[in-house]
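Hi! If you just cloned this repository, the fastest way to understand the data is to look at a raw example. We've pasted two of them here, unedited. The first protein comes first, obviously.
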Amino acid sequence: MIQKTERALKVAEEELMRLQLEATTKAKQLTEVHGAWLPPWLVTHSAQYLEVVSGHWNEHGKPAMDIFLQKASEKSAHAKKWAEPHIETAKLKLVPVKEKLAVLKKNAEPYVEKASAKSVEVYEASRDAITPHFVKFKEVSDPYFQEAKKISKPYIDQVAEVTKPHVEKVRSTLKPYTK
């Protein structure tokens, strides 16, 4: 039993060594292919640029970023400390209000539904009762409206013609204020 386990362990170690060798070979090939994509002068310039940028970052950017993050965490802690009593007050006052509103909504819902149904009934009944009277009124009054329209049309046209220049003057005067 122990020999089988030792043999299995030895086989697994050999397999691991083979896979590691294969992985390093593939990585080396990939690096060579990647290097072949770029011309040598570009690789040199990019390496120099990367070196300059990383030096500049370490000298200027990283300290500034560290200071910024430190100040931000201080401000965050200060804001959290300042807001804590207000948050507690809000929790203590808002939670009971929310609960009371939920109870109110639950208790008022049947009454609201009943009032809504009754208002629809009243609207439909009043509409059904008034519609015939309204139609009759319209039929009776329409000839009078037409006659009044015929008689007053020349006078309305005359008033419109007389007041047109004055209306234009008022419009042009008020134009800057209407925009």
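Ok, and the second one:
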Amino acid sequence: MAGVGSSSYKGNDSILFCFHCKSKTPTFINGWQLRSGGLALLCQNCGIWVLRLKISISRKLQERLQALAINKRSVLISDLRGRASLWFRMATTVRSLKIKTSTCKRIVKELHSYEKEVEREAAKTADMKEKGADPYDLKQQENVLAESRMMIPDCRKRLEAALADLKGLLVLFLSLFCCHVLTTLTCLIICCLFSIKITIVAS
């Protein structure tokens, strides 16, 4: 991906109009020439990325993509070629990745909590045995310890299943989108990671 210019971009092109701040003569910085022939430019006035795509799409689809880009801070694929649903599939997959990652984190936290509980209850049981506690109380404490230990295998099984789901979804994401994203929109992926909004303009 070749850079258009690190300071500013000027040219006889209808790209010199920002739909977000409505500036007809904006200064675009950090421009990038996409391999597909399009341009990715950053408006200095409002900090919105503006894309000029070398594709043929309808005005209605252009407005829809622009609204999605502004409202959802999304990465749009310049090489659409009639496959506008690719953005929706990517957004859905990314959302699923976030959900499954959060699930794994929650189960790991839960597992650590159960392990600490087992250690605490085991120490309490050993202390009661040393002090010669009442047999009934000791039996109750041993039951509590056994119940705590039973939760760990179940938690580990759920964690293994959640990790398997996350791994499968990640492999699916890489196989579906990386061939499109990495070759044309590297700079926009970086923008998405930093939650920078994107505007789209069709040529």
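That's it. A detail worth noticing about the second one: The mean pLDDT is 62.
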